[in-house]
Amino acid sequence: MTVISGSTQVDYNSIQNKPTTIETASYVDYSNVSNKPSLVSGSAQVLNGSGIYSSSVQLPSGLISGSSQVTMSYSVSASYAHTALNAFIQGGNSFGATASFGTNDAYPIKIETNGNQVARFEQNGDLFVGSGSYLESPSILGRGAYVQRTNGQSGFYATSITNLGGTSTFAQFVGSVAAGTPSSITPSYSGSGLSLTMRGWDGSTWHGGGEILISPTQTWSAGSGATNMRFTVTPSGSSTQIEAMRIEENGNVGVGISTPTVRLHISGSGGVSQDLVVNGRIMSGDGIQAGGMSLGGSGSLAAFIGQSTSQNLGIWMSQSAWVMMASQSGYVAMGNCNVFSANADLHVSGGRVPTT
Q: Taking all residues of the chain, what is their mean pLDDT, rounded to a whole number?
């Protein structure tokens, strides 16, 4: 016998009349024979049973070429040379234990498709998803994961989270923060938190343009985990972020103020400037609680326009109580209106109405 060709598996050890050539076999085992074939060509796997891969020892009596995987202790001319019998193979492996994939030296692991890099694990553990090099290098190193898209088109997502399920399903982005170390975690504390930051290129460097921050307002415990939310922006003509709005742990919302004391606290420029514009109607009161609008400085009520009860509308002045009141029936009272008793269309208490 001189040639074995196209076989799925060849056990060279069990053949008495050894061939001189084995071609395109899926598996070739000639580990225990001394009379080696002169040629093993095009085989998918060639084994000698030793589990040692080497390309530095000369093959005694022939040539092995064109093989995609070679497991032997002789010199080979092959497409790929591996270092262990449990190498990762096309179609997957069944190791029966946790598998390790990586390097033992200080070099990254690059993943390619279609001849181009699509991801890279850095030697410090960072994951870079994208092609080319870091646009923000080296400042982003040590930040965990970095996604870079360079197609320059709108409508393309650098990161997308999809979760399919029932009516209570959420596509969640979770950022967990705590103090301490992995072996000794301690509670989250004020000053830490989750930040969603927009960064921009100004022609010479990258810097932040705006942020959404969620932060603890205390050291957390099992029964208390208070947080607030802050929103920062960068004004025109500046490169410094300022806080534009925040939501405190008690639900108070501050616009232009970092210490809101009421449900909606707006700090504007005052004067003739308009700090709140509503293109529609504002509702105050719910038919049970009287509604109105307060006017005056912080800490003291200078004036109030609103309801004394759910049926009356009046004007209240500091130190003078209600100075004008209109009832649901259409009566109007002026003067001392603390006790509304108008029984005419216009009732003036404690004075006269001049005429000209």
A: 74
Q: What are the structural domain ranges in the chain?
A: 1-87, 106-150, 189-270, 295-356
Give one DSSP letter per residue of 153-191, joined into a string: -TT--SS------STT----------EEETTEEE---BT
Instruction: Please state, in angstroms and rounded to a whole number, the distance separating the CA atoms of residues 327 and 334.
Output: 12
φ/ψ of 153, rounded to 5, equals -115, 145
Cα of first residue to Cα of last residue in the chain, in angstroms, is: 136
Beta pairing class for 145-147 and 127-129: parallel
Once rounded to an integer, what is the mean pLDDT over residues 138-166?
68
The most confident of the ranges 79-83, 145-149, 188-192 is 188-192
Closest CA to 89 of 110, 71, 73, 107: 71
Q: What is the pLDDT of residues 199-222, one digit of tens each?
A: 888 888 888 899 999 999 999 999
Q: Which amino acid is at 292?
A: G
Instruction: Report CA-CA distances (Å) from 319 to 301, 323, 341.
Output: 10, 10, 21
